[in-house]
Structure formats: structure tokens, C-alpha cells
Write a structure and sequence with these properties.
This protein has 503 residues and is of the alpha+beta class. The chain is built from 12 helices and 22 strands.
């Protein structure tokens, strides 16, 4: 994994570990979670007043708290965002049934009748020409003195992980038996397709019982298309436009980077490399036209999803992290979310479905989410995770805690969950920019791994700056473009929800 992505994961793990391991003090104002608490949810009086008025929520909230002799700062300067509703219900929710109908629905939403679907195993089989092109490329790298072209680094003995001579020798051997051209196998996106694994006499026939991997040829270009159901009940659809002609070297890392990491700060602690004006220069489509394309596809999913928020995305290549000189394409990313009775499911960076520890035997269930990137030549990337089936109302017009009570819990628990932060860092400053009321799904994995409840929650969203013990920044994010929630509080009873776990 690349350094930037390691930083992202480390930042997330740090928050989870600190929040999960810190003991709750005896005088905490947070109630304990549990089934009995959920059963006690009450309906409120029918006032027909806007939620902001009923809950006493301001349009903006500002507070700056300093703790641990200044080592921890919680800087809250946030818009308070509430849905345009006067009541919120709780709903039963379950994982949508995974069958051929669901696969067909997603397939038909993003690909028209002219698309051709092929097995990735035959489509990506290398020909003699493919091997020769890589051999030539690697020999050129070697002649230039570049023995680690993909920056894989060295092992504990100082040996390169990527042995360029071994790869060249293996390519030369494989080229002898490689076909002159591939024979593409046309297939229907579905589970249970067979494929050959291995080469020659050692080849065996395998079957993708709960997954599909294919390549789709369309008038807009070729796309990778995968459906993964191996970690039931999680089902994941991924669609990504192939850009090998832009990258050149198929071994080189290339991917999309979202706005938060482009303009919100620098996760490596350095200076921001790019301006918004420069980002816009890489995008050759209006946001309105891009949104229309994304909406047309997502509407066909039949999930009643709306655009929750959007931002820029740039496609770059290179193994040393983002570099403005390595940008190949640009577009807009749209985050979609359900809206029920005028109340959206709050979109955050968290995928949910985590485990409390590595020894856990529970079956996790991740959140529903839908992200689409659109560029000048159409959809570039789409990911659909775990569509929900929305069930019946469980508590109508559920009674909510007032805003002041929620804020007290937030400020106390942000301090508590970061109480030992100075053991690992010299200082950390949180920048909370949005306080949002919306739905989140919670569940009890000890009882059921595919049913739960939609409840209203408050999310405190932003970024953070952190200095290590040597005084150097290892993270800088002002939170302006962030979707990361640092605290999620059940709006009904004040319990703190771990978004990574989903309860």
C-alpha cells in the first residue's frame, strides 16, 4: 500500500482504538447501549414544529476546548444541519436479498443493451505482444539504473522486493507458451461461472460461487465490473473505467483521489500541492451535466437515493503518492444516500462492519452506500455497497434529546475518547465543521448479522491536525471538505455509536 493510504488507515485506526479502549468515567452522562434501551424508545408529542425549534438547535455552534495542557484541542466551528421535517420515525431495516434479479438491476442501471460482457480471466490473458512490451519496458528501466520502478522497497536484508531480473526471466519463459491473441469468453454477470486457473497441464477448472469478475465493452470504453458476495451479508458492486492507455505501464499504481485529500489538507503533513482552480482545469464537464449522468444511473437502482453531497476527484498515477504533474483525468464524485420522510441517511467516510477485535467470531454487516465518479466521457467509477430493505416503522415520531444535552455528551466524550492522545502525539487539534442530524443504521451482531434499525443520530464531522513527538506534522486536514465523523451520538438516548462497528 502506498504511504498516503497507510496514513488514512492509521488515522482511522487511531481514533477507533482510542475510542474503544478508553474506559468510560463513572460520572459519564452517556447511557449504556442495549436491547432494553431500544425497546424503551418513546413517541413525542405531535407539535408540528420544525425540528430545529423543537430541539433548540442553533444554525451554527462554536466552542474551543483545550485539554491535556494544550495537547488536545477540540475546535468546533460548525454549521448545524437538520432535515426539513417536524418528526422522525425509527424503521426496521435488513439486508436486501441477493439474487440474480439484484445483479441484473445493477448491471442494467450502468450498462445499456449494446454492452458486451466478458470473463476477466480470458480477457486479461497476456499475449506474446504483452509479454514483449513488459520485457522491453523493464529492460529500459534497468538500463536507466531504475531497479525499483514501482517503489516496492527493500526487505529486512536489504534485498529489493521487486526483483527486476527475475520478472524479466519469468516473462521470457511465459512468452514462449503465450497465445498470439486472446479469445474472449462472452458471459452474463452472475455467480457460479467457471474459469481455468493455472497453466498447461497444471490448469484446473474453478468456479466463482459467490462472485463475478468481468470486463464490459461499451461505446464509452471498457470497464472492470465485479460483484463480491464472499463476506455475506455484505454485497459489493464495483465498476471502474479502464485507463491503461493513459497510464502506459499496467504495473504502475493509478487511482482516483477525492476532494478531501486534494484541498482539505495533506495527510502526510506537508504543504497542500494543488489549488481548486488547478483541480477544475483537469475537469472537462460541468458539475450539472455530470450530476445528471450520475442520477440517471442511480435512479435505475430503485433505491430512492438522492445526491447527499459531491466534490472533485482526480485520476493520477505514480507510486510515490499524489503529484499534480501525474494527473491524467478529472471529474466529479457524487455520494448518494437514501432519504426517508425527508430525513437522509447521513453519509460519512465510515464503511461500518468492523469487528471489536481480531479474535471476534461475529459476522459483520457494513453500511449501504453508493458513490459515482463522472468525467467528460461519462461514468468513470461506481461502487454500490449493501443495499437495504427498509421495513416498517418501529417508533413513530420518536422522542429526541434536546440539542444542549447532545452537545454536553459530545464535548465530554471527545475529551474522554482522546484522553491518552498525548502518549502517542505531541498535540492534536480537531476541526469540527459540520454537526448533522440524520439516520444511521445500528444493529446487534450477536443477535442478527443482517437486520437492524434506522435511528436518528448526530454526527460531528471534520478533520484534524497532528504533530508527532518530534514536532513534525503527520496529518493536516482543516475539515472543510471532510466526510469523517469523529463522534456519532444516538439522538434518542444519547448513546455513543461507533461508526466503524455500526453500533
Amino acid at each position: 500500500m502506498k504511504k498516503k493510504y497507510i496514513s488514512i488507515i492509521a488515522a482511522g485506526l487511531c481514533i477507533s482504538i482510542l475510542a474503544g479502549c478508553q474506559e468510560t468515567p463513572e460520572d459519564t452522562i452517556v447511557k449504556q447501549k442495549g436491547a432494553d434501551t431500544i425497546k424503551s424508545y418513546e413517541s413525542a408529542e405531535d407539535t408540528k414544529s420544525p425540528l430545529r425549534e423543537t430541539l433548540g438547535a442553533p444554525k451554527h455552534y462554536k466552542n474551543n476546548g483545550s485539554y491535556e495542557d494544550g495537547g488536545l484541542v477540540i475546535d468546533t466551528d460548525a454549521d448545524v444541519i437538520l432535515p426539513d421535517a417536524d418528526a422522525i420515525n425509527t424503521y426496521a431495516v435488513s439486508a436486501k436479498e441477493v439474487n440474480q434479479e439484484l445483479i441484473d438491476t445493477v448491471t442494467n442501471a450502468f450498462f445499456d443493451a449494446s454492452a458486451k460482457f466478458y470473463s476477466i480471466y480470458t480477457y486479461d490473458e497476456w499475449t506474446k505482444q504483452d509479454y514483449q512490451e513488459e520485457i522491453t519496458r523493464l529492460k529500459r528501466y534497468k538500463a536507466e539504473g531504475n531497479l525499483d520502478p514501482y517503489e516496492f522497497g527493500k526487505d529486512e536484508n536489504g534485498q529489493l522486493h521487486f526483483n527486476i531480473d527475475e520478472v524479466i526471466a519469468r516473462d521470457e519463459e511465459d512468452m514462449k507458451t503465450a497465445p498470439e491473441e486472446i479469445t474472449k469468453e462472452e458471459v452474463k454477470p452472475s455467480f457460479g461461472l467457471e474459469y481455468w486457473s493455472g497453466k498447461g497441464e497444471e490448469a484446473t477448472k474453478e468456479k466463482d460461487e459467490d462472485s463475478f469478475y468481468g470486463v464490459v465493452e461499451t461505446t464509452q470504453g471498457a470497464y472492470d465490473y465485479s460483484v463480491s458476495y464472499g463476506l455475506k451479508p455484505d454485497i459489493v458492486f464495483k465498476i471502474s473505467k479502464r485507463k491503461k492507455d493513459l497510464v502506459g505501464d499496467p504495473r504502475e499504481f493509478a487511482d482516483w483521489l477525492e476532494m478531501e485529500y486534494l484541498l482539505g489538507g495533506n495527510l502526510d503533513g506537508g504543504e497542500q500541492q494543488i489549488t481548486e482552480e488547478t483541480v477544475k482545469g483537469f475537469i472537462n464537464i460541468s458539475e450539472e451535466d455530470a450530476e445528471k449522468i450520475a442520477k440517471e444511473a442511480v435512479e435505475k437502482l430503485g433505491l430512492d437515493m438522492q445526491v447527499y453531497n459531491s466534490g472533485y476527484a482526480l485520476y493520477y498515477h505514480g507510486d510515490g503518492g499524489f503529484d499534480v504533474n501525474n494527473v491524467l483525468d478529472g471529474g466529479y464524485i457524487f455520494h448518494f444516500a437514501r432519504e426517508i420522510d425527508g430525513v437522509p441517511l447521513t453519509y460519512t467516510d465510515s464503511y461500518g462492519g468492523g469487528l471489536e477485535d481480531m479474535d471476534s467470531t461475529l459476522t459483520p454487516w457494513s453500511y449501504e452506500r453508493c458513490d459515482v465518479i463522472v468525467g467528460a466521457d461519462g461514468i468513470q467509477k461506481a461502487e454500490i455497497y449493501n443495499p437495504y430493505h427498509i421495513g416498517d416503522v418501529q417508533t413513530e415520531n420518536v422522542k429526541l434529546m434536546d440539542f444542549d444535552s447532545i452537545i454536553k455528551i459530545y464535548e465530554q466524550m471527545m475529551e474522554v475518547s482522546n484522553a491518552d492522545i498525548t502518549e502517542y502525539e505531541a498535540e492534536r487539534t480537531y476541526h469540527i465543521k459540520r454537526i448533522t442530524l440524520g439516520y444511521s443504521r445500528i444493529y446487534d451482531p450477536t443477535a442478527s448479522s443482517d437486520t437492524g434499525l434506522l435511528v436518528p443520530v448526530w454526527d460531528f464531522i471534520g478533520g484534524f491536525d497532528a504533530r508527532d513527538k518530534e514536532g513534525e506534522y503527520n496529518n493536516k486536514n482543516n475539515g472543510e471538505y471532510s466526510n469523517q465523523s469523529f463522534m456519532t451520538i444516538n439522538a434518542i438516548d444519547g448513546t455513543v455509536i461507533d461508526r466503524e462497528l455500526g453500533y
